[in-house]
From TrEMBL:
Cell inner membrane keyword on record: no
Organism in which the protein naturally occurs: Cryobacterium luteum
SMART domains: HTH_LUXR, REC
Sorted UniProt keywords: DNA-binding, Phosphoprotein, Transcription, Transcription regulation
InterPro entries per UniProt: CheY-like_superfamily, NreC/VraR/RcsB-like_REC, Sig_transdc_resp-reg_C-effctor, Sig_transdc_resp-reg_receiver, Tscrpt_reg_LuxR_C, WalR-like
Protein name, entry field: Response regulator transcription factor
Recorded superkingdom: Bacteria
An example Gene Ontology biological process: regulation of DNA-templated transcription
Classification via Gene3D superfamilies: 3.40.50.2300
Gene Ontology MF annotations: DNA binding
């Protein structure tokens, strides 16, 4: 069973999500919180697998709550899906940088929401628009000047190559073909890159690359 909790200040919305989750044999609704402080307490008590997190809530916003929950959970961190009403919400980028596994629009279909929960639980990222690269590019602040290569200085030459290919949105198969390595080796490099850079997802990798002008 995948344990799911939701954090949103709209009680009726939370009730609807509860009924949806409860209708699925492989999902378990573990509770709801209606502000950012309450979700940090609920996450510590219930230890959910997936958290649906509203960005804007009373007391503590969803981005801060995401940071606090992931920092407190350590290796047993839940996967967090951020919920928003605006596709081009600049806070989405902050949520990704805070460690969220992706984001969904609140008007997403029930089928898409359920698929997203199962996807992030499987260790993958999910993002509402079809083109996540375009979204991150649009939301990333525009800085002039040279690329900030210092942010990836800890990587080996091969890891830097894989980093830049992944930052352009290439699949593992495409990265392998471009770098003349196997998909298994690509996966190993990606894991090493994320660990060295302190990142939790490929979405964060892409955001880091755009924010530091490492890709155009």
């Amino acid at each position: 069973m995948i344990r799911v909790v939701i954090a949103d200040d709209q009680v009726l919305f939370c009730s609807g999500i509860e009924m949806l989750i409860a209708s699925q044999d492989d999902l378990d609704f573990a509770g709801a919180a209606y502000d950012g402080e309450a979700i940090t307490v609920l996450a510590a008590q219930k230890k959910p697998d997936v958290i649906l997190m509203d960005i804007r809530m009373p007391k503590v916003d969803g981005i801060t709550a995401t940071e606090q929950i992931l920092a407190a959970a350590g290796l047993e961190s839940p996967r967090i899906i951020v919920l928003t009403t605006h596709q081009r919400d600049i806070a989405v980028l902050s949520a990704i940088n805070a460690g969220a596994s992706g984001f969904l629009m609140k008007d997403a279909t029930p089928e898409f929401l359920l698929a997203a929960i199962r996807t992030v639980h499987a260790g993958k990222s999910v993002i509402a628009p079809n083109n996540s690269l375009a979204l991150i590019h649009d939301l990333s602040p525009r800085h002039l000047g040279q690329a900030n290569d210092a942010v990836i200085s800890a990587l080996s030459v091969r890891q830097k190559e894989v980093f830049l290919l992944a930052a352009r949105g290439l699949s593992n198969a495409d990265i392998g073909a471009a770098a003349f390595i196997s998909e298994t080796t690509v996966k190993s490099h990606i894991s090493g890159i994320l660990a060295k850079l302190g990142l939790s997802s490929r979405l964060q990798l892409v955001a880091l690359a755009y924010e530091n002008r490492l890709v155009q």
